[in-house]
Design a protein that fits this description.
single chain; 170 residues; alpha+beta; 5-stranded antiparallel beta sheet; 3 helices; 9 strands
């Protein structure tokens, strides 16, 4: 009977240890994603082919090296060169909503890539959180980013109106 009790005790100890490791792993993942999870984007129609883009940072820390990514294979440009195109700017301040007027975005896409209005939909944003981790958010998920942009690709100040963000972590 003692051998069976010892085996059951070892089984429960291993199960408890495994559960503890899983809980710790989930907590670490949640901690890493805490700020990034408070950053999002969406679009609103601004006419037949135009869209206004809104990015919001609801965290108490800025996010940096921000990029808007457009998917452009149907934009009549060389897809080998520009399947994805992006606009990069330095920072989204804490608790800030940025509203990008479609005219500024259309002008950027036309002047930099020759993409006509409505030729490329916004598909993702990429940014670096306050801990230096790079994230990509698209319509389906938030995940660690794989692409590191090169220096010199910034547009400077983002062509966007800044407003206070609702539901900010205060």
């Amino acid at each position: 009977m003692t051998a069976i009790a010892a085996a059951i005790g070892l089984f429960f100890s291993a199960t408890v240890a495994s559960s503890s490791v899983d809980a710790t792993r989930r907590q670490l993942d949640q901690d890493e994603r805490q700020q990034a999870g408070r950053v999002g984007y969406w679009t609103e129609s601004a006419g037949e082919l135009a869209e206004t883009v809104i990015i919001v940072n609801r965290s108490l820390d800025p996010v940096t090296n921000v990029e808007l990514w457009w998917y452009a294979p149907d934009a009549n440009i060389d897809p080998a060169k520009h399947e994805w195109v992006f606009m990069a700017f330095e920072t989204i301040p804490p608790c800030t909503r940025m509203v990008f007027d479609h005219r500024a975005l259309d002008e950027f896409l036309l002047s930099h890539f020759g993409i006509e209005q409505g030729g490329a939909p916004v598909r993702a944003i990429q940014f670096i959180d306050s801990d230096g981790r790079q994230w990509l958010r698209d319509p389906t998920a938030l995940r660690a980013a794989e692409y590191e942009r090169e220096d010199g690709e910034d547009v400077g100040d983002a062509p966007a109106r800044q407003e206070p963000a609702e539901h900010c972590d205060k």
